[in-house]
Amino acid sequence: MAYQALYRVWRPQEFADVVGQRHVTKTLQNALLQEKISHAYLFSGPRGTGKTSAAKILAKAVNCEHAPVKEPCNECAICKGVTDGSISDVIELDAASNNGVDEIRDIRDKVKYAPNEGRYKVYIVDEVHMLTPGAFNALLKTLEEPPKHVIFILATTEPHKIPLTIISRCQRFDFKRITAHDITGRMKHIAEESGVTVEERALHIIARTAEGGMRDALSLLDQAISFSGEQVTVEDALTVTGSIGQEQLTNLVKSIIDQHTASALDAIHQLLEEGKDPLRLIEDLILYSRDLLLFKTAPELEDSLERVLSDEAFKQIADTVEPDLLYQYIEVLNKTQQEMRLSNHARTHLEVAAVKLSQSERPKVSQAADIPDLQQLINRVNQLEGELKNLKANGVSEEAAPAPAPAAKKQSRQSTFKAPAGRIKEVLRNATKDDISQIKNRWGDMLESMNRQQLRSLTALLNEAEPVAASQDTFVLKFKYEIHCKMAMENNKLTDTMPSILQELTGAFYSVIGVPEDQWLEIREDFIQNQEESEDDGETKEDPLIEEARKLVGSDLLDIQD
Predict the structure, then answer these.
(1) Which residues share a beta bridge with 172?
(2) Percent of the chain scored above 90 by pLDDT?
């Protein structure tokens, strides 16, 4: 028999084998036992997380000769037929190649026929988001009211492309990325059953590279076994995945922290000459800095380290580096990563970042030389005690002693983000109740859509943000904290994603203006006060500069910006 890839040989045959999706498998098992089977399911999530496998397991379980059961027996004729694809009652379709109206109409015509062998006809439609709008429309009525013997299971990696009318007719299950720990455990079991020896650290490297997909992890493991033979080492895993060894990464980070610019650049050049990807290297540096910060501030969370294993060299660096310095590193590296993705000179950006980090200003730490000599302090204390005794002897009470001057308040840190007051006032001037109501009504849907698109880190910035005013083309977004406002407005991906999703939900395009809460209160109060003064004077007042510019060039050519 021809060789089969590991991910095909070890494809889950029961719910217990589906790794990292307990929230999905448990729900489906309970529904099977209670015979509460829905007519349509939507399985969404990243690639290689078990969507199609779970769909086939569900198809076997509902048709198993021993039903109702929470797991298919995999022994009866129907279970074996579904596994090898010989049962005509379970139909698998690839929507990428069968995405037209005619294919869906063919399904619609055939669903009315009863199943041949099992109790249910199960249609598994993979990558359903590839269907054309006409095909979705043809599927609507059938999906809503199919015959009692038909079950639809739709699988997709991009649920945001599926019409809401389809989603509302399905029970939706979101498959999440599988953790590196779960992937490592599954690969270890497979390696032992296959008689292959794999080093523990090699498994960690492969699991991290797979980025939450079990199929990707098994493909990489398969490749590593082919490369190395019967024993997979760390070096084999690094070669196959294109990853960077921890020792090399540690030396690079140590050179940067020690401000050895030449050594850092030499390490980068060596890695690039070995064929390492600059984008992979910058990502590894970000994760390494993140792990350093996590280990430095919360060493009890060692299991949460993503990029490194806490060896002696790593712990030594963590003991010497300051958290403030790691904050600087992560900020610079993150900005560099964004620039590299948009540039044709990724290597240059990487080298510039290494120079900038190795020459960055260190946080101030008290030096021993700044501490006065201990004996001098003792002498000074004795002198002050003697003076105090003399004052008491001369009849001066402690109450009469002048009160110490209150310590000067630390000057508050200047604002690092200045909201565009002029643009905000322009929005307020043209604001309508319908526009702000429309945005507020779909705000929750927008956040949910961002979460479905794996943008949870961006959505976190909007947790305490609130739309407060909107005109026909712009809305004002108030943030509770200034730092969240600054981070959100400087993130191009976020400022591009929000308007595009809102446009899908509302049908109108709104650009966004961010403003911290304290600045919003000032701007709104100033706007209201000016409006009241204008009403008292019987005319609308305007900024003198804008008014003069309007006289010179006219309103049509005037573009007001802060």
Answers:
(1) 42
(2) 18
